[in-house]
Write a structure and sequence with these properties.
- This protein has helices at 15-30, 37-43, 48-56, 81-94, 96-99, 103-110, 116-124, 132-135, 141-157.
- It is an all-alpha fold and 166 residues long.
């Protein structure tokens, strides 16, 4: 007698095969056709136990397509949803100054230990992005002082609006 395979050794049947089995049985029952489930399972090459499990499962969905089931496969996210919420709160609280932060600086403010690209990808899932202008840094204080002095000098030389027309 063959031994029962361990859960890790069990073969998963693809959704189309599962749907076919469910469809054949549903068709036979709806049209009152005499049949044996065992014959349907043999036709599709499915063991009897798996066949009964497929018939009992009314959902045609597989694990990866169940909206109400938490995802357990794959790598755990580096930036958790809680951390993303924290970064979003920082952006909302700080206004324009927060939006001037780089992705890396935003992560540091929120206590997230990840590189800027990872944070950018995570925040991108929430619809956040940076435009080209946001990547430019603020004007340095010495440059701002020079610009202000120049503007005041030009205003004293040319005080009326007539001077500023082209």
């Amino acid at each position: 007698m063959a031994s029962t395979p361990s859960p890790g050794d069990r073969k998963h049947h693809p959704t189309p095969q599962k749907a076919k089995i469910q469809g054949v049985i549903e068709y036979c029952e709806k049209n009152k056709i005499d049949y044996y489930k065992k014959d349907v399972f043999e036709m599709f090459g499915v063991p009897k136990t798996s066949g009964h499990r497929i018939v009992a499962d009314t959902s045609a969905r597989r694990h990866h397509n169940k909206p109400n089931q938490r995802e357990t496969r794959g790598r755990k996210p580096i930036v958790t949803p809680e951390q993303m919420k924290e970064m979003e709160e920082i952006l909302e609280k700080t206004g324009i100054e927060g939006r001037a932060l780089t992705w890396q600086q935003l992560g540091i403010e929120a206590g997230v230990d990840a590189c800027g690209d990872t944070i950018k990808s995570a925040m991108g899932t929430m619809g956040y992005r940076k435009c080209i202008a946001c990547t430019k840094s603020w004007t340095a204080p010495p440059t701002a002082e020079r610009r202000l002095a120049y503007a005041k000098e030009m205003l004293s030389k040319y005080p009326t609006s007539e001077h500023w027309k082209h």
